[in-house]
Amino acid sequence: MASRGRQRISVCDIVVTAGQESFRSITRSYYRGAAGALLVYDITRRDTFNHLTTWLEDARQHSNSNMVIMLIGNKSDLESRREVKKEEGEAFAREHGLIFMETSAKTASNVEEAFINTAKEIYEKIQEGVFDINNEANGIKIGPQHAATNSTMGGSQGGQQAGGGCC
User: Could you list the residue range(s) of the whole structural domain that residue 54 is in?
Assistant: First the structure.
């Protein structure tokens, strides 16, 4: 979440796809109205990496063309069982214009950072005018605070503020 003067901007719609074919039909509807997506594969299962192209095509076909997409190689705590090299993930991300990071949901390594980095990229697109903050179809919602003319990014002071929130 970013502060914009006295406005609070919540990036509520970040889609997380886990690369499982059984979820494919329902995740398509989640892409609509999303400002960002985390595309996750399992570094210990080559098949999840091999399906990335299909998942990425789905995301791009069913979303705003400006949606921020982060590619995440999960289970970095299982280095001894790795089937997908970090360099492969980096190369895929570079080739497709994605942000890349490896995480471990088990140890929480880089999990929060993945969401924060995605939100920062979305915020930069807001600052550049790519996303219209007045159009909630972009997956961005302005909190109930009074409108301000300044658009500086400040940290949220003390976490959630009364009267605001996400989603």
Answer: 2-138
